[in-house]
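Everyone, carefully examine this protein record:
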Amino acid sequence: MEQATTRQVVPGATDTTASAAAVEDDFGRHLVMLMRAYQATLGPLLGELPHGTRGYQVLVAVVAGDHPNQLALAAHLGIDRTVMTYVIDDLVASGLVERQQNPADRRARRVVATEAGRSTLAELQRRVLDAEDDLLGALPPAQRAVFRDLLQTVACGVRDVAPEVDPCEAATSMLD
């Protein structure tokens, strides 16, 4: 059974060993490295999909169909509502989604996946899952599943703490 490691912060440490250990144990650095690799891997796979990974996230949520309108979809994904308008506009123009009148509220529009959107997503999801498995190749398959579960738990917790933060914007600004 593995023991949890205890991390110690040594303010003002000048020892090169302590500095090297701090770099190896730098959580933020590892997240940024993983995010860069993820974006570099997924970018080419998403090809012509409008707005790349953000468009992919929106299409996944639309196909799931759990959001009654565009505003709820934007809130769920942590995307600014004005930015969401542009993403949806481009997905509509590509024939992947459409806006339909919401039968429960005639003033509101639901965003619904088209058949082309569903089939495009199915193909993209296959490619993305393969790429994610390659990206996590340093882990055995069982650890990949645990990693994904833990990542989801942490990500959902962060959204609850800072719902006004757009995770896509935060990640992009970290990489610039």
Observations:
- Helices lie at 16-24, 27-46, 52-64, 70-77, 81-93, 115-135, 141-161, 167-175.
- The two ends are 40 Å apart (CA to CA).
- The chain has one domain: 27-175.
